[in-house]
Request: fold
Amino acid sequence: MKYTSLFLATLTIPTILIIPAMALEVQITPNIESVKVMHNGKEVVIKRNQQQNHIINQDFAKTSRICPPFCIQPMTLASGIETIGELELLDYLKKVSYGDNSILVIDSRTPKWVIKGSIPGAVSIPWDLISGAKSSPPIVNKLLVELLGVKISKQGKNFEGVKTLVLFCNGPWSNQSSSNIKALLKLGYPPEKLKWYRGGIQAWELFGLTTVTDIPMPWLGF
Reply:
């Protein structure tokens, strides 16, 4: 009787079924399914779109735009500037997410493009601010000091200890990130601290990688 009661009692205990997570069919690489990054204080998982009939965002489906200004950019932008791809960019994003404050990933596009979708972990610094096209020297200096780590004194600009910047824009036909980089070089920013994701959002979208629309725009507070 004792054992019968024990047997019946066990029947009332709910069974917990552990189902292993399904592997993604469309991975980033054979060894990387997805990458977790911090964006606006929350975790975002960057992965490729799993719908294998998915097509590229129509904003980036056009093959021809008026040149100039929308001309094909060179692979090497300037001496000392490293051109990187998606995997290298993901590495930088992971480092930022793990607390590396010496790196800043910058979306160089104007806000009308940024709000359509950008890369998780990036911040917005439009090309026309650093270049001075739509700003003033005090604003440029504030950007340099408060966001990029430049020290400014009566003796001039000190670029020791500045952040490593990873810049991108719409793609190889867009000159917004290249304009940002050229403006920074003109100001004296060390080229070894500048990384260029030439493929930009067009290449990011081509691979079906995750995008977000809530990109921080710290310059709005200036």
Q: What stands out?
A: Residues 1-14 have pLDDT under 50 and may be disordered.
